[in-house]
Design goal:
Order of helices and strands: EEEHEEEE
Radius of gyration: 14 Å
Number of domains: 1
CATH architecture: Beta Complex
Strand order of the largest sheet: 1-2-5
Helix content: under 10%
Number of helices: 1
CATH topology: Metal Binding Protein, Guanine Nucleotide Exchange Factor, Chain A
Number of strands: 7
Largest sheet: 3 strands, antiparallel
Distance between the termini: 32 Å
Bound molecules: zinc ion
């Protein structure tokens, strides 16, 4: 049996830091035009979590939101990345 351990992440410059304290509910690749344009790639890979399992440890003031009918993204305002 695998024991989940919290996942810690940050943006490239370290202004935003976060923790995910539960396993992903699902993961998938999306090849739609919106995801290709948003990520500048042939597809995007997503790990879906409950929002109450995401803790922004530092730099929440540097985040803005973007929503579509299917998803809700946080992106880093300074660098303009998700
Ligand atoms: Zn997509």
């Amino acid at each position: 049996m695998t024991v989940f351990e919290p996942i810690f992440g940050r943006c490239e410059c370290g202004s935003v830091r976060f923790k995910v304290d539960a396993p992903a509910l699902e993961m998938y690749h999306c090849h739609c035009a919106r995801c290709r344009r948003l990520h500048g790639t042939l597809f995007a890979t997503y790990a879906c979590i409950r929002t109450d399992n995401l803790v922004i440890d530092h730099g929440a003031e540097n985040l803005a939101t973007y929503s579509s009918p299917r998803a809700h993204w946080l992106f880093f305002v300074t660098a303009g990345v998700t």
